[in-house]
Records
---
Amino acid sequence: MKKIQFIAAVVLCILVAGFAAQAQDFSHIEAILESLDAQSRFDGLDFSSVLTMIVEDPDKGIEKMVVRQFRRDDGERFLLLIQEPVTEKGQGYLLEGDNLWFYDPSSRQFAHTSLKETFQDSDARNADFGSNSYSSSYEVEGYLEGTLGNFEVYIIDLKAVDDTVPFPYTKIWVTKDTSLVLKTEEYSLTYRLMRTGLFPKYTKVGDVVIPVQMIFVDELVEGQKTQIAVSEISVSPIPDHVFTKAYIERVNR
Amino acid sequence: MKILLTIALRNIREHKVKTTIIGLIMAIGIMVLVVGNSFMDSAAAGIERYYIQNYTGHLMITGQSRGQLTLFGFQDMTAMERAVPRIPQYAEVVEFANSLPYVETINPQVSATAMVSRGDKMLGATQLFGVVPEQYQVMFPDNVELLEGDFWEPGSQGMLLNKAVADRMEKHVGFTFKPGDKVLFTSASTVSGMRIREAEITGIFEFRQSNVQLDMVSLMDISNVRALAGMVVGHAEPAELSPEEQAFLGTIDEESIFDSFDSLFAPTQVEEEVAGDDYWFSLLGDTESRDLSNVEDTGAWQYLLIRLTDEKYLRQAQADFAEFFSEQNIAAQTRDWLQGAGAMAELSYGIKNIFNGVVFIIAIVAIIIIMNTLVISVTERMGEIGTMRAIGAQKSFVRRMVMWETLLLSGIAGTTGVLLGALVLFILNRVGLEASNMFLEIIYGGPVLRPELSMSSVLTSFVVILIVGIVSSTYPTAIVMKTSPLKAMESSR
């Protein structure tokens, strides 16, 4: 009897250890996250574009924003300069490494803000305008294989490892063949769905792949969402002075 | 009648022990009811009084809107998504308010939430009430205690920093705020995006009676708060969208988005031309229209707080304003003080209702004990009642006799209970019940509760004890009446 019990215990231990080992083996998923991050970075290149944001608000109706985006991923810099609507024209977001500044031309003041904050009155977050940081900011909690429309995808559950990202839990749908994020679901600490992101169109700029169409759905307010179209893409060099506070002040004069 | 009363009094005197026990139980029950109800009434009145006198007035006029709009802005899931509406035709509304004889004083306000920063450091958040000091102090003369400095001068800009806000922020930065310091306020308005304003602290204050929510509030000049709340003359024109931009409007079906094509890549033309300085420094083009749009809307207010000469005019005031808004086609509405007071006042009321429930359950238990004691008391006297009936007493006579006994007992015990309750309340009022934690502060409606005897609780208690007395004597009397006099007499042996 004791022998049977011993064998059963050993088999159970082996099974548990096997499952545990299998559950922890996310190396190929982590490799996908690294490739997502790498292909979103403009290393050695400057990038600029125009973002057209259509914000749907159940109370206020539809609003349109036009934003000029300048990015230099070497040094983690970006400048977002609002061109429309007229009341917000000239407001800017300047990222200098870890510091994100907001500029208000009506008071000519800069104030510190965070990548986690909402971008103006839209459903986008300031962090949505830089390169990805899936591999450094998250750890893999699990994954599934599935389909989304015509595409076979990995559905990956991620948990934030620091507080630099807007949401502590994220689920991403990544195409198996091209490693493109098609959809994201972002959750609060209590695992309440806060925002859904859809990325139906991408473009290639050299080795870099960027979404040129993004839709962010606010899951707390029914009917609230923001779509962003990226146009006037350029990789021509941007002068250094563009990524400075002085430039934002001067361009507003 | 006289005979009945004489017999009833004699019976009460005869059964001294029983009378004392029942009377004591009744008196304690009444005391519990009086103290409990008075305590809750005092708490409710305290919350109401201190909000009306110090923060909300009796009535609040706002622009018409759905949702839970309070003096602190919207307090629901959409709080950050919606701007507090402005009061349309504000000048006419003020003129009408001033024409009403029962309106004592009015105070306009604007509310905004802002992050506070100094230099590179984000220090925390504060709720801002944009006020005109002269009007604010007339409406709420006793709510602000200035610890340092003073209100800003009429027509100038500045702010009074709440000591509670300052304490929280000072912990992060290790310096003490003082009048003359300048700090930055950043807000996110749904109307004009993010806004930054620098304001000089002209004084440090605390609200004389406060709570967690009010501890977040600082007072600021109206001009700066209007800017932070996005109350400018400009407004966004309706968006003109291209067919492509309209493609994803409305509800979208995620599956079908990724069903309709095989390739995720869109052809894009990438420009590589190097731009000159002219391009970089003229990116925004003309900014004059922007500057004109961002001029402060000096006639814009979100709230008009109204204090009445007497609370009895509240309903009349609500009706008069509703009629005025309807006649003039003004999209505004009135809200009472509780709607304006925000989550903490509502929470106080909610908890008060729970405590009322607890008092009600205690009252039910007391009633059951009293009824049970009375039932035993009457059935014990079955022999006596049987004898009375055997010597010719009518059923109705016996019923009335028991009833009068109970009523007399209830009256004496009830009065004793009320007096005891009044004594307990008097002592509590003198001592004052200090709220030792935030939970109690919410229930008390402030840091100290001084309960007062409430007449409604006295009346309620008397009604309850009389009903209990009548009901609990009727049931055993009915049983005794069904028993024949002979059997009743035998049972006493």
Note: Chain A touches chain B through 80 residues (CB under 8 Å).
---
Amino acid sequence: MASDDIWILGIAMTKFGKHSDKDIVDLGSEAAIAALADAGVTMADIGILAAGNLMGAGAGFGQQLQKQIGQTGIPVYNVANACATGATALRTAIMAVKSGEVRMGLAVGAEKLAGAGLLGGGGVSKKDGNKFEPRGRYGSVLPTDGRIGTDTMPGTFAQVGMEYGHKYGGVSFELFAKISEKNHAHSVLNPMAAYQKRFTLDEIMNDMMIAYPNTRPMCSANCDGAAAAVVTSGEVLRTLSKEQQRRAIKVSASVLTTDPYEEACQILPDVNTLTRNAAKIAYEQAGVSPSDLDLVELHDCFATAELVHYDNLMLCPEGGAVDFFMSGATWRDGSMPVNVSGGLESKGHPIAATGIANIWEVCHHLRNEAGDRQIKDAKVGLAHVIGLGSACGIHILERSGL
Amino acid sequence: MANQIPHVDYLELGDKPHLVANECTSCGARFFDRRNACAKCFKNDFKKVAISTDGILKSFTIVAFAAPGVPVPFVAGIIDCGGTSVRGNVINTEPTPEKVTLGMKVRLTTFSLGTDDEGTEAIGFGFEPA
């Protein structure tokens, strides 16, 4: 085993949902302490802490966390990278281990988002005197959200899915609703999910419209939660117990990208090119192809987003996402199970936790510890997140052969 | 109409209202905002170019739930105006999936956004079925 092999030694998540009696530090501590226990190590073994929290970025979440779980003087990297915050924290810890500077790293992502309502959109109306004055990079005299397109997340990602339809055809309100139907059906088997309710297609389509074609159950659920992971090198893993080696999960690829310039990318965020780029690099790093994957957790922040990522992650031929989905492939009993956790639409999306929690889900299956929702004999899995702005994190994980 | 002001500085008013982009003189990339350098090729020389007022609706959403103060429903869209993508609302038609469809032809139009205390009228733009 080469010393630059990276392994997840321990990983944990809190239940996602409404935790009104806990603050972000409580949630982060719960996940971190559980991840350390899962790894069979303590804070004394950890050389770096990468701490992700988006909504409170700037408050020094990592240091606050140390005060509760162990102040050992190690460096803290406070990480904020939109919805890719958790994956970015994990990648930060991985880079530190890979560089040889530390033997073990801890990555934590925590967020409190229950009741946050609509994200994105709005804009401050002018207050100082009623006079039109051009402001900002577009020289606007009034807010633009709602007058020149939409800034809301549901609307933005609705357009992402509809754009795919314009390019390749075959999309409809019903198709997108069916994707949501699948994820909610999957959630019934996941006790960690914020919502475990199966919806009929009619219920989804007749629920409150948020931004056509996304109705409320087709949107990710704002909720509270945290997730944490301990990473180490192959060289260190070899010195640990047989049990630790057996349960360790190999990180075959860890990739972070941003959106390269494309025509229109500053008009509608391009969530496609950076995902495709990250996927290409990840498959190459891991030496696996999409057909080798036993399960995928991808960033279904909205039902309209899941469709395009089938294509971006090359789970189907280019332009073939609609047929791929309609074949039933992405249901848990299909050829390429996608979001067996219930996805962000039902498991929930506490932003900074998401990019580690989806890795927890994959690890859980690879360790054969996923209980009722276990994907049988899962050996390889992929976890994907995207943050608008944009950032994409992809990790490919493999069962330990040790 | 001396006391009119465009909603955004890339909307040019006058007899034939149209949008204006900053085009990189090196690579041709087009941007609507104030630029420091080109996101595509990193050069920093730009010229103003007029954008076609006719376009094709290549994506849209009908926003039913928005921030306080934003009237709903409205249609937010991405319009391909002769190869340059533009963000704008689809207006002067019913905001329903029956009336608004992918690939429909649209054209730029303007409308009043109200008047400030000094009598200056803000003019906005949108796209209507062509």
Note: Chain B is about 0% helix and 50% strand.
